[in-house]
Every structure is written in C-alpha cells, then in structure tokens.
C-alpha cells in the first residue's frame, strides 16, 4: 500500500529513534528535547545488544549461535567481527577511483538521510564525516577474508577468559542483554559460558579504536548502521535516495516494485510458511525417492573414482574419505507473530525480532542431524561442513535441473547430477577437507595427502596464471 507508506513516511523509524538506546546524536533536538542524545546517558553495550536482539542487526560485534566446529553435536555462541556499510573492506582501504566514488556516495547518503529525518544540514555535514573516517579505521582492523580460515577462527574461550583478554567491554553483560528472557527464561548465562571467538585480534583493536574516538562519533556510527538497514522499508522518497546511492555502488538503475519486495521479504523471512505452500504444490514424494536414488548412484561413482583413479591420497585417508561420502543423511514456528495490513514497518520489525532470537533458542540443545534450515523455495544447492550434509531444497528439484519420473533418467543425471557431484566434492575442497565425517573440525587427511593436494592445486593455479587475456593486457589470475 504505497499511499499508506507515503502518509506514514518515516514516523515508525522516528518513533524508534526516540527510544533511549536508539537516539541519534546528529538529529539534535529534531525529535524534541526529551529525545535528544545525551553523552552521559549513552550505553554502547545496551545499544549494540538491543540492535542485535530487536532488529537482528550486528554492529561492531556479531553474536550468533551455531554448531561447535570441533563438537558438531552441540550448539555454541560465536562472537565475530561485523559487516561494514559498503560491501567490501577494500572499498575503504584502497584509493582507486571506484573506491573513492563509493565512499563519497556513502557519505552523501549518510548526510542526506539524517537531514531527511530532521537533522540540520550543517550539523549533518560536520558529524557524518567523522563517522565515515571511523568506519575507514574500522575496515583497517577487520580481519581480511584470506586470513579467516577455519583454524584461525576457532578460539574457544570462557566469557571470563574473554573478559581478561579484552577487558574494555562487559562480555557477559552483552550476551545476557542479547537474550530475550521472556522467550528463554531458563537460559542462564555465567562467566563460565564457553564461546567461540572468531576474531580475537579484531576485538582487541576494536576497543582501542573506540577508546580513542569521540563517543558522539561512535554513537552516530552505531545508530547510522541501524538506520541504514531500514531505509528501504520507508516511503518512496527514501527509496529514491537509496537508489541514487545504489546506482554508484552496485549499478542498480531502477526501484524494485513494492509488491516484489514484499513477496521476497515474506519468502526470505517466513521461510517455512511459504516453503510449505510451495512444497505442497510442486514437490511430490516420488521426486524425493528418485532424488535419493540419484544421489546414491553418484556417491558410488565417487567412491569408485576415489578407489581406482585417485593416486595422491594414501590408503587410510581414502578409507576415511569413503566413510565421509557415505554418511547416510538425506535430509507452528510463527504463532507469536501478528501482522497488520497497514503497518509495513511494524511487520518488518516483528519478523526481525523473531529472526534475531531464533538462533538463541538452540543453545543447550543437540544439533538435529536430520533437519536443516534452508528455505525450501531456494533454487540452489548447498553443502554443510558442520553436519556433512548435501542439501537440495524443493526449489532446486524442478525443471530444468530435475526432470522426474516421466522423463529419461539421463536428463536428471546430466542436470541435477552435475550439481550433486559438485556439492559432494565440497566435502573435500580446501575448507570441507578440514571437517571429518561427523562434521568436526579435525585434520583427518594425512600430512602426505595434504602436501600432494596442495601441489596439485598449485599446478592448476600456475596453469591458469599462464593464460594471457589480450584484450585486457593481463594474465588470468
């Protein structure tokens, strides 16, 4: 209902920004003197926790729950670096023409959106430039992708050890504040709670950066990230302003129709409700049986190739690989939600809170080996290293990938069969090989097999590096 959204405009977001934890310094008195940001009242921990627990948004610190990499039957809290406003770390730390354009577009968006929400333009200019500078410094301490290996990210601490390691933040208080005690009254946290710290050095550097930055700038940044994530749920004037930003950063040239956005949002947030409707209409039991038969055939072909053609794995590693490939696993949540036809923003915030708390509920529970949490309508396939599963949602098991019983099996083997083989080999690629048949982070390859694998991968890298692309004047890399 675009008319209602135009009338409502930014009112729901502004109501949010009046709350103590979400007050935005740059707005000054725009929302009334009683809603003005006051430095002495600003609590970084509480604000970060509320954004995570209510808005499903991680700023500065990412907290989530997933299986323990070395004990894949159990869930554990993981703490990690959070994302940035721009999609790539390099957009902040390089001075290419493109990166400079992205940063300038981001700064203009920050200034314009704050003014659209009531900020004085001169104040916005003066306060948003330090915010961008802060995020540039933040990007410099973010651990780059190439260093984020499974081994480097597995650092098991108790919260008390983490407190000693990074003492400038109340880690136990943060974890407790993220958990909704009304939903999980029996989920008690103590300093002995074990967590996986995926980026210890980042956290050390983060609080050094925060301690040398004006509190106003930190608060402006944190609330900006929350506002940034909600721009596209507002009226068309905000959408068009965001489109100007997206033209520069992603090449987008037009707005997605609101009905399309709404359908996508429902599909991606209420995945089991929409998935059930899709499965009932498009997925029959005989498709499942045929897919299981097809996967089984490809497994045996893979094992045959492993035994007869693989000349670089030793005998013991081959035995464990066979065990891994043949692990035999083929694999009223929304009752608390109440939606309104006239409150789009409120509906979005409800689902975000639901999503924010959904992973917390798995703590203290055993990982369900015969369940998985992929959207059934997804047209893609996946490999999960923590459960050693290959996953094919119903959306993938349609033509032209999967042809069913009324067509020659060769069509399905040639289409979805390629994808099955692709996903299967993820269990043995440079990341999947680090996890054993039970999904635990464990070096089950022998050292000699790893050495020969590395030599063969380097051979392929060297081969591709030798190809010269005349039009670009560059070698392929």
TrEMBL record:
Cofactor annotation: Zn(2+)
Any one of the GO CC terms: plasma membrane
GO biological process: protein processing
Record keyword Cytoplasm present: no
Lineage: Eukaryota, Metazoa, Chordata, Craniata, Vertebrata
Protein known as: Phosphate regulating endopeptidase homolog, X-linked
Record-linked Pfam families: Peptidase_M13, Peptidase_M13_N
CDD domains given in the database record: M13
Keyword Hydrolase applies: yes
Residue ranges of domain Peptidase M13 C-terminal in the record: 380-473
InterPro entries, sorted: MetalloPept_cat_dom_sf (IPR024079), Peptidase_M13 (IPR000718), Peptidase_M13_C (IPR018497), Peptidase_M13_dom_2 (IPR042089), Peptidase_M13_N (IPR008753)
Entry keywords, A to Z: Hydrolase, Metal-binding, Metalloprotease, Protease, Zinc
Domain of life where this protein originates: Eukaryota
PANTHER family in UniProt: PHOSPHATE-REGULATING NEUTRAL ENDOPEPTIDASE PHEX, ZINC METALLOPROTEASE FAMILY M13 NEPRILYSIN-RELATED
UniProt source species: Cyprinus carpio carpio
Peptidase M13 N-terminal domain span: 8-325
Molecular-function GO terms, alphabetical: metal ion binding; metalloendopeptidase activity
